[in-house]
């Protein structure tokens, strides 16, 4: 008879680690966290931790450790399709507007923290699907046919849902393209979001990882743009908008496409005793592609409902998870409207009027873009 865990969590990214941490904190210790990779492993991501993500990390007691390895951003500059830099509004908080950290480092900090609690963790195990018996989910099965028994299964596998997508629904996705550069010469502690008429409603970004290192990327709606166009727009971001800061820059990191899956309507994130957290539940902002804070928050909600279920053995408790997530992200359905609005270049005049203009891009710069 195999050991039956109270909870088995598949995927040790921010969502999986958040579930494990919060379960442990609520006294649920018979849990197993597994990942197909051995950490430290990389994950294609710009590594921007928003204020909400920082608040979550502070609640977990890990923010200070993360800060020692992250780069602080005090100003995010928004460039409009009219090449105006918006003044923007600063949220009043002592936290930096963003922390930028390599995911290889961030995810290892999180996982080490969970391991330090003595949560059982197994790395290098690929889980291929559910262990199902007479319509009941008894756990999961690894690609080496190991059966792992659990009362509750949490899917935290990120964009990859293969083997776990019971409803077989299709979701919209953003395709991103990203490169890492060193020996750059940007203003310190400043990031850029660039809204160019060619790929609205999404954007290009520059996130600094150190004083002279940045990651640059672009996200576009799939399948509106061909692979060829995405490469072209990525090049446009780098060589026109940012070129003046990158004259001696060297490309050091990967540059490739990767999906970010999102939804406008949170749905089907609970099925019997299975919960989907983070990006596997498509709990990602359709507007910005941000998914780390959502992974941490949904992980906390999942742990909260699972501990209630385990305490009173009432399966209906788990359904509450979907309600909590929906309530928290009630803005998601509206993001479709927001995106339709900013898709049109002329609407940016309205945004400029509301947000205020800080400056125009320099004329030499503007000529290049035109
Ligand atoms: C280019 C790019 C830039 C981004 N930039 C940002 C940003 O700046 N800020 C932000 O907030 N978000 C950003 N995101 C989104 C963010 O990366 C994700 O939404 C976030 O990582 C989701 O966390 P997660 O824990 O749900 O999944 P993940 O971080 O993807 O973790 C999933 C884990 O599951 C494991 N796994 C998968 N399948 C299996 C399996 N079958 N068996 C065992 N283990 C498995 C994986 O190895 C992985 O460790 C970006 C995404 C991309 C692609």
TrEMBL record:
Boundaries of every FAD/NAD(P)-binding domain copy: 5-162
Domain Digeranylgeranylglycerophospholipid reductase catalytic residues, every copy: 181-246
GO molecular function: oxidoreductase activity, acting on the CH-CH group of donors, NAD or NADP as acceptor
Top-rank taxon, per record: Bacteria
Pfam family, one: GGR_cat
InterPro entries noted in UniProt: FAD/NAD-bd_sf, FAD/NAD-binding_dom, Geranylgeranyl_Rdtase_fam, Geranylgeranyl_reductase, GGR_cat
PANTHER family, alphabetized: CONDITIONED MEDIUM FACTOR RECEPTOR 1, GERANYLGERANYL DIPHOSPHATE REDUCTASE
Name of the molecule in the record: Uncharacterized protein
